[in-house]
What we know:
306 residues; Aspartate Aminotransferase, domain 2; 7-stranded mixed β-sheet; 4-stranded antiparallel β-sheet
Amino acid sequence: MQEVFLCNSGCEANEAAIKIARMYGNQRGIDTPTIIVMEKAFHGRTLATLSATGNRKVQAGFEPLVKGFVRVPYNDLDAIRQVARHTPNNVAVLVEPIQGEGGIRMPDANYLHNLRKICDAHEWLLMLDEVQCGLGRTGKWFAFQHTDILPDVMTLAKGLGSGVPVGACLAAGKAAGVFKPGNHGSTFGGNPLASTAALTTLNIIVQDNLLDHAGKLGEWIKHQLQTRLGGVKGVVAIRGQGLMLGIELDKNCAEIVGKTLDKGLLINVTADNVIRLLPSLIFSQTEAQQMLDILCPLVVEFLAQE
Length: 306
Ligand SMILES: Cc1ncc(COP(=O)(O)O)c(C=O)c1O
C-alpha cells in the first residue's frame, strides 16, 4: 500500500474509505457516485458506515441514511454484474473478505478474484474492510492474502493496537493520491501512544510468529469442533479461517453466551444463531482445549433442549 491514514477506530477508517471512493468518483466527473456494499455486512456505527452496513437493526432509528450505496448479496457475482450494467455512476465495491458480524461467512472460491476482475474492468476501487479479519487473525497478515488479489483500499482496526484505540485506512494504485492534505484527519488520529501501540503490536506479531500460530491453532480448533459437534443435530455449519471461527446452529442461541460465561468462558453470538470465536492471537493450545471442554458440552445440551 502506498498511503496510510491513521484513524481512531474501524468505523473512522471505513468512513475514510467511503470518502476516498466518493472523491475518486467526483474527480472522474461523477457527481453522484455509488459504492456497492453487501447484505449482512458490518462496517461500523457512524452515519455513513451504518448506512453501508447490511443490517436493519444497526440502521433503525437513524434515518435518513446516507445515500450512495447499492446493496447486493455477498458471494453473488451476477448481482455485481447487474449493477455494472445498470449503474454507470458506480465507482467502488466495499466488502469484508470474511463477513464477521454477518456470521463468519466465507467468500466462495474465486469470489474475490472475480470481484477484482470486475472492478478492474469498470475502473472501480476494490475496498476491503479487514477491521475484523485482518492483522493475523486468519493466519496471514490480511485475509485477502489467501487469494491472489490486491485491494485498492484496505481498512484495519481491532487488533492493530492490542486494545489501544487505533485504526487505519490504506490506499494503493488509483486510490492513492485521491486524498489531499486536509481531506481526512482527526485530533487524535495517529497520536504517539496509539502509533506506538500499533507498531509494537506489529513487531510482536513478527517476533512471536503469531501468524503461523493463529493459522495452525485455528485449524486444530476447527478440526476439534468438527469432531465434537459436526454430527450433532442442530449444528448447521462449522466454518472460518485461523482464529476466526463460527458455529452456526439451527436456532437463535444468544442465551449460550450467559451459560458459557457462568463457566468462565467469554464468547459471542452474532447474526442470532452463529457462535463466534475470535480469541486473541496469543491464545494457547491449553486454553483452546479448556474452551472446547466448556463450549462443546454446552452446545450439545442447548441443542437437546426442546
Ligand atoms: C468488519 C468491521 N468493520 C468495521 C467495524 C467497526 O469498527 P469500530 O467498532 O472500531 O468502529 C467492525 C466492528 O465490529 C467490524 O467488524
